[in-house]
Design a protein that fits this description.
The structure is a single chain. The protein is α/β, with parallel strands linked by helices. It is about 40% helix and about 15% strand. Strand 10 and strand 11 form a beta hairpin. Helix 7 crosses helix 10 and helix 18 runs antiparallel to helix 22. It is globular and about 75 Å long. The N and C termini lie far apart (about 65 Å). About 55% of the residues are buried. Bound molecules: flavin mononucleotide and iron/sulfur cluster. The site of iron/sulfur cluster (SF4) has 14 residues, from helix 19 and helix 21. Iron/sulfur cluster (SF4) binds next to helix 19 and helix 21.
């Protein structure tokens, strides 16, 4: 009987050597004349264990990792095909603590199935949500999404059902679903993992959104830095079209819906929804003033749903299992699960999907295992380059939109980047201003000019030029940017800057004083 061997084709795993491991297995399989089928699955998200190879045995799947090409021969000698003992043997993936502690709803299949096998997708619960959707009235689909409590996972946390309702009620000859796959936040990779590891769940979520709102066309706007994800999505769309999941009659229903993949040109601001729409229309990626809302006048002036990948990929399970099932996870107004991406200087980096409500300390210390360098954690930046730096004193903050906002932070796309005690927070604050200056679309003055003045003023603080006065000036500038910017790039850059100043005041003494103290 053919043995199935799973070697991730996820680009994170490839960066860690998965392609070399796959090539080594192919060589050994040929020279030993073994009957093995290699499946390039997605990653389950424990990057500290990648490349993690799994073999299907009579006792279920057994994992080994992290595997190097040079381990392949000895692993086969040790009886890997039967789940044999070896120093790299991790046992059943479900029993590995990093996976066992998760609640996988959106990522249930990621790393488990063959990403481009529609049969495998269906065998693991895929298309159940869409089958329900084609037999449900649009208003009831929208009501289910609203009742589930799902909020946008792209950053702003806006209720998905309310956005869909606006588009559903808009009267127009064409409507669109736009999936935001620009994933520009530092330390984030959840969107990429879904596209590479379970692309059909995104297609299914988009098709449900189309049926619910009356949109017949969807676009996935993917950043150019994700070549593997682009390829996976293009192939998945072609397969879905051929199987009748997409096309003029979705699953044989009277609903038409098709998807097109578009590649961005590489600007952080093109992740902002109106800038993204301009880019999709072939224009420069400049932010549009709101109103009009994209839900009413979006792509090509038509009513448009713009949703993040994770928002859309969470919809199939909601339709399949019901609003109450999803809403039962979480805390406060943050319902369901959130794929937390743990990155930076951390021992156990990876994707951890859990119900809202875990504290930042649990995530960093228990799940992440502290820093990779072994030094004390100094700060954690949550929510990408516009997110605040949290000191250890705030590690009791639960992962919840409102709890983070109450502490002048944001969850954003749920990326967290860990820093040890060697981090220079003045340099980080300067980096935030510099990033804003480089990425600003230039439309409004507080962001375009303010960020450059911010870099100059922080440089004066470091040089010891009237440090107190200049630090007061930075605070003033941050207020102007926060309240005077047109979009969140200029409006949220003050979060990393001010949190660094507030929580790490010692780092803002002039360089000469800091060196004298060392
Ligand atoms: C500067 C900037 C960059 C953004 N980048 C992204 C991004 O890469 N991906 C994303 O989904 N949302 C991003 N957003 C948020 C989007 O504007 C928008 O809120 C989101 O796509 C809506 O989808 P959701 O409701 O499903 O979260 C960004 C916002 C700003 C201001
Ligand atoms: S805040 Fe910055 S990125 Fe946003 S519209 Fe203004 S200039 Fe453009």
């Amino acid at each position: 009987m053919t043995t199935r061997l799973f070697i991730p084709g996820d680009s994170g795993a490839i960066a860690l050597g998965a392609d070399k491991v796959a090539a080594a297995f192919r060589r050994e399989i040929a020279s030993r004349g073994l009957d093995i089928e290699i499946v390039r699955n997605g990653s389950r998200g424990a990057y500290f264990l990648e490349p993690m190879v799994e073999v299907e045995t009579a006792e279920g799947r057994i994992a080994y990792g992290p595997v190097k090409a040079s381990d392949v021969g000895p692993l086969l000698d040790a009886g890997l095909l039967a789940g044999g003992a070896h120093a790299l043997r991790l046992g059943s993936p479900d029993e590995i603590p990093f996976f066992k502690r998760q609640t996988r709803l959106t990522f249930a299949r990621c790393g488990v199935i063959d990403p481009l096998s529609l049969a495998d997708y269906e065998a693991h619960g895929g298309l159940a949500g869409l089958r329900k959707a084609v037999a449900t009235a649009p208003a009831d689909i929208v009501a289910t999404v609203t009742e589930s409590g799902l909020r946008g996972r792209g950053g702003a946390g806006f209720p998905t059902g309310i956005k869909w309702k606006t588009v559903m009620e808009a009267v127009a000859d064409r409507k669109y679903i736009v999936c935001n796959a620009d994933e520009g936040d530092s330390g984030t990779f959840a969107d990429r993992m879904i596209m590479e590891g379970d692309p059909f769940v995104l297609i299914e979520g988009m098709a449900i959104a189309g049926i619910a709102t009356g949109a017949t066309k969807g676009f996935v706007y993917i950043r150019s830095e994700y070549p593997h994800a682009i390829r996976a999505m293009e192939r998945a769309v072609a397969i879905a079209r051929q199987a009748g999941v997409l096309g003029p009659a979705v699953l044989g229903s009277p609903n038409a819906f098709d998807v097109e993949i578009r590649v961005g040109a590489g600007a952080y601001v093109c992740g902002e929804e109106t800038s993204l729409l301009n880019s999709l229309e072939g224009k420069r990626g400049v932010v549009r003033a709101k109103p009009p809302l994209p839900a009413l006048q979006g792509l090509f002036g038509k009513p448009t749903v713009v949703n993040n990948i994770i928002s859309l990929a969470s919809v199939p399970v909601i339709l399949d299992k019901g609003a109450a099932f999803y809403r039962d996870f979480g805390m406060g107004r943050s319902r369901g699960t959130i794929p937390i991406q743990i990155a930076g200087n951390v021992r156990h980096g990876g994707l951890f999907e859990a119900a809202f409500g875990m504290t930042l300390g649990e995530i960093v210390d228990d799940i992440g295992g502290g820093t990779a360098s072994g030094r004390p954690v100094k700060a954690v930046q949550v929510g990408g380059p516009l997110g605040a730096y949290f000191p250890r004193a705030l590690f009791d903050t639960p992962f919840d939109y409102e709890a983070f906002a109450a502490r002048d932070g944001l969850i954003g796309h749920a990326g967290i980047v860990v820093f040890d005690d060697t981090a220079d927070m003045l340099a980080q604050a300067r980096f935030a201003m510099e990033f804003c200056a480089i990425e600003s679309c230039g439309k409004c003055t507080p962001c375009r000019i303010g960020s450059t003045r911010g870099v100059e003023t922080l440089d004066k603080v470091r040089a010891g030029i009237e440090p107190d006065r200049n630090l007061a000036l930075v605070t003033d500038l941050c207020n102007t940017m926060k309240f005077g910017s047109l979009c969140a790039l200029g409006g949220f850059t003050p979060y990393p800057v001010m949190s660094a100043i507030t929580h790490f005041p010692g780092d803002f003494a002039p360089q000469i004083i800091r060196e004298a103290a060392e």
